[in-house]
Every structure is written in C-alpha cells, then in structure tokens.
Amino acid sequence: MCFNPPDIFQNPWRDSSRCILQHTQARAQEWGVTGWIQNIAGEKIEGEAQGDESALQKMVKEIKTGPPNAVVVKVEMEDISVVEGEKEFVVKRTVR
User: Fold this and answer.
1) Could you tell me the pTM of the whole model?
2) Strand residue runs (E) in 1-96
3) Which helix (DSSP H) or strand (DSSP E) does residue 66 occupy?
4) Which of 39, 55, 56, 82 has the smallest C-beta neighbourhood within 10 Å, fewest atoms?
5) What are 45's strand-pairing partners?
C-alpha cells in the first residue's frame, strides 16, 4: 500500500504516480529485475528494466495493468542494450 500522510491533500496525480513507482519497484525486486523507474514531465512515467525472459514478461504484464486503482493509458516499449553493472531496481528522482 502507498500511503504518505504529509501528502494526503496534494495533487492526486503525484500521489497516484508515487504508488505506481513503488508498486513497480516492489514487483521488480520480487522477480529479480534490475533497472529504474521515474516520473517525467507531463504526467508520464519512464523506466528501464532487465532480467531473465520470464521475469521481464511478468514486468511487462504488470506495467500494462498497473497497481489497484491505477489507470494505465498507454505503454511504449523498445529493446535497448544491456546496462552493465545494474544490481537493483530503483526509483529515480522526478524529471521536471
């Protein structure tokens, strides 16, 4: 569950996106996926993930579905080169 008491009355997008980021990070850690996720300008989220094929298939399904009460409008993906040295899945600071 995502709950941040000081943020209760803030922008609902911000609270919702924080839950999406935390949810995605938790699933990635559960499945041994490394990479990152972050908010970017315009109420969008971007990220990078790598792991074994089975774990990545779970991640793609999870990203397309989102956590409970989230609405995923569109998902765009592309294959990129492996990022050497990644050891965990992290939430990066928001890009404004």
Assistant:
1) 0.77
2) 34-40, 44-50, 89-91
3) none
4) 82
5) 39
